[in-house]
Amino acid sequence: MIDIDYLNFLENILTDNRKEKFLKVLENRTKHFTIAVEDIFQMHNTSAVMRSCEVFGIQELNVIEQRYGKSIDKEIAMGAQKWVDINTFDSITNCVDTLKSKGYQIIATTPHENDCLMDDFDITKPSALFFGTERDGLSEEILQRADGFLKIPMVGFTESLNISVSASIIIQNLTNRLRNSEINWHLSENEILEKRLSWAKNSIKDIKRIEERYFSENVK
């Protein structure tokens, strides 16, 4: 449950422009789609995917760190880690089970010939879009457990794209179609309040000291 008094206290520290920006951005945020990346060896690619999530309004990024366990490259992410929720998993099974339990269908992005083309993809169902490693693609476990497959149409000699490029193209396409649909894709009121609180905390320097002062004065 969100402490509205605490949220108001923090937002009073922010400028009006910052608060208005939060509300405007949150109007376009969604959890209808979520992105998952599997054991990305080059961490700057995960950081770039996170940046695409932030730019196009995807609120959650799921990172499987079964083999490599590297940290987010903040320079590449360019602050996106402050605004996107990062869920980390130590195994493919844990990630897939968690996303399925939240009601997502598992969609594997692959360049295979018989996969669904991006423009034909059914956007009505909440979907977790999985992207694989640069070298090996998606693991066999994800391919076996996938509810569907998705690919970008290509007409050149090259058969694949860098993962960060593929993710950006797919995310932009699907979120644009989503916003032009009648699907209820917005965050809930409570989710919006949660993000306002989280983003306010991320925007305030010396937040720990301010929190300590607030709670010492207001919690009895």
Automatic annotation (TrEMBL):
Coiled-coil spans in chain: none
- What region holds the tRNA/rRNA methyltransferase SpoU type domain? 33-171
The residues listed in the UniProt record as binding S-adenosyl-L-methionine, with positions renumbered to this chain, are 109, 152, 161
What EC number(s) does its UniProt record assign?
2.1.1.34
Checking Pfam families in the record gives: SpoU_methylase
Classification of source organism: Bacteria, Pseudomonadati, Bacteroidota, Flavobacteriia, Flavobacteriales
- The family this protein is said to belong to: Belongs to the class IV-like SAM-binding methyltransferase superfamily. RNA methyltransferase TrmH family.
What's the name of the protein? tRNA (guanosine(18)-2'-O)-methyltransferase
Query: Whose protein is this, by species?
Result: Flavobacterium zhoui
Print the keywords alphabetically: Methyltransferase, RNA-binding, S-adenosyl-L-methionine, Transferase, tRNA processing, tRNA-binding
Which SUPFAM superfamilies does its entry note? alpha/beta knot
